[in-house]
Amino acid sequence: MSRTVIDLDDEALEAAAKELGTTTKRDTINTALREVTARYRRLRALGEARELAAEGALDIGILLDKSKYRPSGGPDDVHDAGAHE
Predict the structure, then answer these.
(1) Which of 8, 64, 68, 85 has the fewest CB atoms within 10 Å, i.e. the most exposed one?
(2) What is the pLDDT of residue 84?
(3) CA separation for the pair 67, 45 (Å, rounded)
(4) For residue 85, what pLDDT band results from cuts at 50, 70 and 90?
(5) Residue 5: CA atoms inside 13 Å, Cβ hemisphere, count?
(6) Distance CA 17, CA 35 (A)
(7) Mind listing the pLDDT tens digit for each residue in 11-45?
(8) Taking the C-alpha atoms of 45, 49, 55 and 56 in order, what is their torsion angle to the nearest 10 degrees?
(9) Which H or E element spans position 63?
């Protein structure tokens, strides 16, 4: 971890701490950096998924159809080992 001396906008830092639920400057800044990075990664992934869908390489309808990957609760949908023993 590096140590850096910087001038901060105290009001922005306080607002970020409230939003993030952090209590120290260090935690606020580190959490904010992680959150921003994760957000932009998700945005890129969403953009890539949209491109795939536009090209016909990805069927969003299949992904959104939860019945395709979640049990409906019937007796035939039990997947636990030993459930039918």
Answers:
(1) 85
(2) 47
(3) 24
(4) very low
(5) 0
(6) 12
(7) 999 999 999 999 999 999 999 999 999 999 999 99
(8) 160
(9) helix 60-64
Amino acid (1-letter code) at residue 22: T
Give yes or no for a contact between 13 and 31, defined as CB atoms under 8 angstroms apart.
no
Which single residue is written with the structure tokens 């990664």? 41
Cα separation, 18 vs 11, whole angstroms: 11
User: Tokens standing for 1?
Assistant: 């971890």
Q: Indicate if the pLDDT at residue 5 is higher than 80.
A: yes
CB within 8 Å of 4: residues ≥ 6 apart: none
- What percent of the chain stands above pLDDT 70? 81
Q: Which one-letter amino acid corresponds to residue 7? A: D
